[in-house]
TrEMBL record:
It comes from Halovibrio salipaludis. One of its GO terms (cellular component) is outer membrane-bounded periplasmic space. It comes from the Bacteria. CDD domains: LolA. This is Outer-membrane lipoprotein carrier protein. One of its GO terms (biological process) is lipoprotein transport. Residues 1-22 form the signal peptide. It holds the Pfam family LolA.
């Protein structure tokens, strides 16, 4: 089974040129605006700082790292030590390297992750407003889009995406099914630069254990 830590990391990638055809006028308008913001995103690279809070607001975890993603289903996520982890997707597989365990785990790219915001940055999802209820709010820094899944059988309850006034994604907040909140702040964002193919190949020592996990779900 895919761990919740890995599943939540996958779900933080929520950017793509998304064709949107709506259920309601508000959702359709917001989906169309979101699609416009992302229509020129062919690749995205950034450093990040992620904070996880409990339902009562206690900080449970703070991590930093870097990410790269490009259209077509490829992304790379690296969390810095002491909780180091690398996640790479290419095609239909997710490869996770945990250096402290000296272990690589290979998962199928689960449908409920791939069809939610999981890989919208590096892939494409059609009919966005059939999958989410979407609303838009203006802020002093720019704007925010809030996505709520129509299907309740998902790993998250709500996702917000924060853009600056130039339309660049600067942060996300994920409210998950355990009532925890994960806030992700991006810095040093680079858009649409070419990313070498080997960025999306997992770099791990030859002598690590390799586990092929064909199970579904997250724990």
């Amino acid at each position: 089974m895919m761990t919740r830590r890995t599943a939540i990391a996958l779900m933080m990638f929520c950017l793509a040129a998304l064709p949107a055809f709506g259920q309601s006028a508000d959702t359709e308008d917001a989906a169309e605006l979101l699609s416009k913001r992302l229509s020129d995103y062919r690749s995205y690279q950034a450093d990040f700082e992620q904070t996880v809070q409990s339902p009562d607001g206690e900080r449970l975890q703070k991590t930093t790292g870097e990410l790269s993603a490009r259209r077509g289903g490829d992304f790379f996520w690296h969390t810095d030590p002491p909780m180091e982890q690398k996640i790479v997707t290419s095609g239909k597989k997710v490869r996770v390297y945990d250096p402290d365990l000296r272990q690589v785990t290979i998962y199928p790219l689960e449908e409920r992750i791939a069809s939610t915001p999981a890989l919208l940055l590096s892939g494409e999802v059609g009919n966005l407003s059939e999958t989410f209820r979407i609303r838009r709010e203006t802020t002093s820094e720019g704007e925010r889009f809030i996505l709520e899944p129509r299907d309740k059988d998902t790993l998250f309850l709500e996702l917000s995406m924060r853009f600056d006034k130039e339309g660049v994604l600067q942060g996300m907040e994920l409210h998950d099914s355990l009532d925890q909140r994960s806030d992700l702040q991006f810095r040093d964002v680079v858009l649409n630069e070419s990313i070498p193919d080997d960025r999306f190949e997992l770099d791990a020592p030859d002598d690590v254990d390799v586990i092929r996990n064909e199970g579904n779900g997250a724990r």
